[in-house]
Amino acid sequence: MKRLIVFLLFVCAIVNLGLIQNDYLHEMLMPYGEKFYIYQNNCDSYFNGGEIIKNGTGQIVKLNKNEIQNNLNNIKNYAGESVVVNNISLNKIMKILNLNVLKKYYINNDLVVIGYSNKLNHYLISENKKVNIQIKVGQENIIVGYPLIMEGF
Q1: Secondary structure (3-state) at 149
Q2: Which range of residues forms the domain containing residue 92?
Q3: Which residues face 103 on adjacent strands?
């Protein structure tokens, strides 16, 4: 019994410290998300609702908050995703993601933040550093991309 309790406490500590990675930005930002863009390399998944934009052999699936809830089991084998969020600050997003900020710059009047989150599995290498998050802070909303923003800004 003691071993079981110690094991459960250990698992809880790992989860709370963010040592277990996952692959789903949309799940981490679900309470704040308004629009969700999922990019798939192939078109092997069925989506209930949403807008599908074919892109060569892949597709970009645009879903709203209700549609993503109905499609959680269909989101697999994807190359990237972007989430448009509202009612959340940049600082809170960075805390949720445990983001290590690598670069900040402005495009027009929008702040762009590039970083690495150890809570997400995949990453790109840029300037010999791991990168897997791109955030654009605009006047009306914030767009978070994993590993990059999948829709234009």
Answers
A1: coil
A2: 22-146
A3: 114
For residue 3, the Cα-to-chain-centroid distance in whole angstroms is 36
**Locate tokens 């879903």: which residue?**
63
Let me know if residue 13 belongs to a domain: no
The answer to whether residue 7 sits within a structural domain is no
Let me know if residue 88 belongs to a domain: yes
> pLDDT tens for residues 61-87?
899 988 888 887 777 667 889 999 999
* 94 neighbors 40 (Cβ within 8 angstroms): no
The number of helix segments (H) and strand segments (E) in the chain equals: 4, 10
Residue 113 maps to a domain = yes
Whole-angstrom Cα distance, residue 53 to residue 90?
29
CA–CA distance, 3 with 19 (Å, rounded to integer) = 21
pLDDT, position 146: 96
Length of the chain: 153
CB of 3 closer than 8 Å to CB of 45:
no
Tokens of 111: 């702040």
Structural domains counted in the chain: 1
